Amino acid sequence: MSVWRKRSVALILVGVVLLLKTSLIACNSTAIPPDSTSPISQSVPSELTMEPEKSATSEELQEMNGMKLKVEIGDCIFSITLENNVTADALVSLIKAAPLEIKMRDYSGFEKVGSLGTSLPAEDRRTTTQVGDIVLYNSNQIVMFYGSNCWSYTRLGRIDDLTGWEEALGSGDVTVRLFLS
To answer: Is the pLDDT of residue 61 over 50?
Structure first.
């Protein structure tokens, strides 16, 4: 290899290293001072900390988003306060056309899982679910919890009043209907 070619390769490598270093520094910097009260500076994505994502209360979700769905299971109707994310927005768009009926199967004695028949945008994060949480799994399945689990999901919402929730879901398979309130 000629001297000029070696120097050219060396200069290109130095340029790539500098570019990568600059990119890493830019990714780690923040335009918001760390003592700011902005939610951006107060939260670290759960996938970076590997800690389970905590569920907001129904009242907090209602204040943030205000969008509600209803879920009908047999003779029971429950209100769902939706998360403020693109996935919940996509679910609402799907339901605006017509109520959504989902056949759900029991899984492991703590959740019901059913296919949406279509995929929604997912923002999966490691999440510890609680009774009443409703999440998206694998971009095309809705999961309703009557127990707890820790897995990678996209949060959709939460049942507002859990009275009768576990009884309505029962121990076997069930059909639910989602509609706008």
So the answer is: no
Look at the chain and count its residues. 181
Yes or no: say if 131 and 149 are a contact pair by the CB < 8 Å rule.
no
Range of the domain at 18: 1-43
Separation of alpha carbons 168 and 103, rounded Å: 14
**Do residues 67 and 20 share a domain?**
no
Contact 65, 81 (CB under 8 A): yes
Q: Environment class of residue 52 by beta-carbon count within 10 Å: exposed (0-12), middle (13-18) or buried (19+)?
A: middle
Task: Compute CA 57 distance to the chain's CA centroid, rounded to the nearest angstrom.
Answer: 15
Please report which helix (H) or strand (E) contains residue 96, including its range. Answer: helix 86-97
As for how many domains the chain has, the answer is 2
The per-residue pLDDT for range 134-161, each reduced to its tens digit, is: 999 999 999 999 999 999 999 999 999 9
**What percent of the chain has a predicted confidence (pLDDT) above 70?**
63
Q: Is 120 helix (H, G, I), strand (E, B) or coil?
A: coil
Provide the residue type at 122 as one letter. Answer: A
Tracing tokens 């028949």 back to the chain, one arrives at: 117
* Residue 149 token pair: 């689990």
Q: Around Cβ 2, how many Cβ atoms within 10 Å?
A: 7
Same domain membership, residue 109 and residue 87: yes
How many angstroms separate the CA atoms of 61 and 84, rounded?
A: 8
